[in-house]
Amino acid sequence: MRIPRALPAALAVGATALAVAACGSGGGSSSSGGGSTSSSSGAAPAFSGANIAVSQGQKKGGTLNLISAEGWEHLDPGQSYFQIDYNVVYATQRPLYGYMPDNGKKVVPDLAAGPPTISKDAKTVTVKIRPNVKWSPPLNRTVTSDDVKYAFERDFNPNVPNAYASSYYPIVGADKSKGGPISGISTPDKTTIVFHLKTAFGGTFAQSLTLPGSAAVPRQVAASMDKKNPTAYDSTPTKQAFDGPYMIQSYNAGRSITLVRNPNWNASTDFRPAYADKIVWKAGADANVAARQTLASPDLLMMDTPPAPTLKTAYQSKRKQLSVAPLGDYYATLNTQTPPFNNVNLRRAAVAAADRQAYLLARGGKLVGVVATHFLGPTDAAFSAAGGNNGFGFDFLKNPNGDMAVATKYMKAAGYPSGKYTGKQSVLIVGSNADPGPKEMQIVQAGLQKLGFKTQIKAVPQQTMYSKFCGYVKAKVQVCPTAGWIPDFSDAYAYLFVPFSGKAIIPVNNSNWAVLNDPKINAAMDQAAAVTDPAARIKAWANVDKMITSTAPAIPEIWATNALLKGTTVKGTLDTWNDDWDLSFSSPQ
Amino acid sequence: MTGTISDLVSEAASDTEVAGIEARTPLELFWRRLRDDRVSMAALVFIVLLVLLAIAAPLVVKLVGARPPNQQGTQYLDAFGTPTGPTSKNIFGVDELGRDVFSRVLYGARVSLEVAVVATGIAVVIGVVVGMIAGFFRGWVDTALSRIMDVVLAFPILLLAIGLASACSLGRGCLGGLIKPGLPVLILVIALASWPYIGRIIRGQVLSLREKEFIEASRSLGASNTRIIFREVLPNLVAPIIVYTTLVLPTNVLFEAALSFLGVGVQPPTSSWGQMIASAVPIFDSAWWYMVFPGVALVLTVLAFNLVGDGLQDALNPRSDR
User: Fold this and answer.
1) In-domain check, residue B9
2) Which chain A residue shows the shortest CA-CA distance from B270?
3) What's the sign of the alpha-carbon dihedral A153, A156, A161, A167?
4) What per-residue confidence (pLDDT) applies to A464?
C-alpha cells in the first residue's frame, strides 16, 4: 500500500517491455521479475530458507554512488513507508522476512531463522529468529526476540506514526497499548516470538512481516528517543542501532546520506551479499540533470524514475542502461459517497467515456505499462484468475479509447435519457500539480465533459492532494485521477483491502479514495483473507476484484512499471519488489 | 456675406504668404507623425490582425481545418506519448494530450488579450482617479494615496498574485463569490499590481498642470473643482493616459503569461500561452513546436504593443528625442 511517487511519467512496461530489461541487462542488472507471473501458483506464503545471492559477476568492495531527485522522509523502520526510504532501511535494518530482488513473490527469512509457524486456526504465528545476529557498535550485543517485541510495541506508539500497523497487525491488545507492552506478543526465549491475533489473519499477517515495521529495535537505545513526539529515532537516523549489513554514517536531510559497513554484520546470517564497502547517495538533484548524468557516467545509479523524454532517449540509444520493474496500478477514483458519483451507473458511464489509452500515453506510453482493465495487477498471483490483461469483460471497460455508446447506455440507466448529465452537481477534480498530474486531470475532465458534467480542476502538491483532499474524507473530492497503489507485500489482500474496503476508511490519511463501503465487498474481502488454501485464495480474491470492478469505484488507468537508469559499468540489481535499485545487491564494478 | 469673409481670409493668407499651409488639429498632427513611423504602423497592423483573429478564432479554426482547441487525440501521440510535429492536419503540431497547437495558440490569444485589456482598463481607471485626486488636492490626501501606491509598488506582487490566485481558485472564489476562480482572479490580480504605475504618472502630471495659468484663470473665473478636474485637467491627460496604457498593456500580457506559467492563471483546459510554454518545458527536446509557437506569439504580441506605445509617445510628444 505504498503510494507511488508522482514522478515525471514513469516508463511503465508491460510484458513486451520486460524483454527490454531482459535483453538490456546483459551481464549487468538482474532481469525484471514481472514476467514470472506463472512461476508462483500459490497466493499463500512461499517461504524458502535458502540464502541465494543474485549473481551477475558483482565484486566486493568499492563505493556505490547513487543520485536522486527526491529525498528521504522517514528512515525509522517503524515509520518508513516510501520506496526511497525502503532502499536505505532494507540495507541497514533486518525485518523478520524479506524478498530476493529477482522475485518479488518469494518470501525469504531475514532476521527470522526459518518460515513462521502458523497455527491451524490461523490465530497464532510463531517466529524463530537467528541466534547470531549482532547490533552495530556501540551496542555490540546479540539481537533478541525482545528487540522484535519492542519494534511491534513502538509500531503502535502514537509518537511513531506507522501507516499500516492497524491494518496488518491485528494483535491481541495492540490497539490499546499506545507504545506500552502488548498482551498478544510473548517471547518464551531469546530467539522465539509468538503473536496472538484477534482474527484468523495468520496467513496475511505472516506475509506482512516483510515490512520494515517488523525490524528489530533495541529498547535500550530507542525507548528514551520514542518518548519525544515525533520520535528522535527518526530525526537522528545516525543514532539508530543497525543489524543490517550497513550503518548510516552521515545524514543530511533531503541532501545526502552515507552508508558504511556494519562491522558486526556476519555474512553467513544474511541473504544479502552487500558488495559495496560504502554507499554515497546524493538527493535533491534536478530529475532531468540526474538522468542525463547517470546515462553519461560509468558508476551512477539513479534511484528515481527518470523523466519520460530521457527515458525515451535511453530506450532508443542506451537500452543497456535501462531496466524495468513492475510497480502497481494507477486509477482515477470516483467518490462513491458524494453526488453525482454515488450513482453506480453514472460511475460506469464515466469509466466507459474515459480514454484510458490517453492515461498510458500521459505517463510515457509504450514503455510505461499497459492499460488496466481491473484492479489486481500483473504482479499478483490472482491476476490470471481475474482475467489477466482482458479483465472480466464488462462492457464499460472494453474499449481502451472509451466507448460513448456504452457510456450513453449507462447515463440512460442512471436516469438521464439524453445521455448527458443534467443535474446541478459540479464535479471537483483534484490531482498532483507535478507532471503527469495536470495531464491526467485534463484527460478525466475531457471524458466527463463529454457526458455533460461541469468540472473544476484543482492542482496541488502530491502531499497536499493526499492529506487535504483525496485522503481527507470530509473534503468530498469527487474525482482523484492521480491516485496510485503499490501492494505492500505479495498478496491480493495488500492490493485491494486498504484502497477498497469500507473497513479501511479513516477520516484523515484515508487511502480508500473512492470511499467505497459496500457491505458485500467488505464481507467478501474478510472471507477471502481467511482462506489459506492457495488455489481457493486466488479464486476468492479474483472474485473480490470482480465485485469491485463491477461497481466502478474508479477508472482503471494503467498497470505500471518503473523504469530505472544506471551508469555504463555499475552492476545494478533491480529489486522487483521495491521497484528500485537494491543497495545490498548492486556493486560499483 | 460669406463670400466677403472667405475673400478676406484668402487675402489675408496671400498677404502673409502662407498659402498652402492648412490649419491642423492636434489629432491630425498626431496622425501624420504616427503614419510616418513605419515600424509603429506595422506593429499596429499586427495588433489589429491579432485582435481580429482572436475574435474570429472559432471561424479561423474551421477555415484552416484544425480541430477545436480542447479536443484530445491519442492518435497524434507516438508510442512513447511524445507529441507529433507540424503536419498538414496539425499545422503547428500537437501538444502532450494530442490537442492542436495552432488552435490552442489562437484561443490563447483570446485569453491574453482579454486579460491584458480588461486588467489594464481597470488599472487605468483606478490609476487616473487616484492620481488625479492625489495630485489635485495635495496635502494629506496626496500623502496617504502616494504612500498606498508606494506600498503596492514595493509589494512582492508576483508572490501576492500566486497566493491570491490559489486562494481564490476553488469553489465560489473569495470575498463571498465576488472574485470567481479563473479569469476574474487573474484580472483582479493584474489590475491590482499595475494601477500605481499609472497613478504615479498621472499624479505628477496633475501636480504641474494645476499650477498652469489656464487653470488659475479658470479658478479666478470661479470654476468649481469638479469643472476644473473634468474640463481643464482631464483633457490634458489624454496623451499620457494613451501612451502609458499602451506601455502597461504588454507588461500585463507578460504578467498573465507568467502567472499561467506558474500554474495560477486560467483553469485548464482553457489554453493560455504561458501555460503552454510551461507544459512544453519538460518535453522541449522532443517537441520544440509546443514551446516555439506560443513563445513566438507571445514575443510578437508584446513587441508589437511596445512598438506602438513608443510610436504613440513620439507622435504625441514630439519633443522627446528619438
Assistant:
1) no
2) A442
3) positive
4) 82
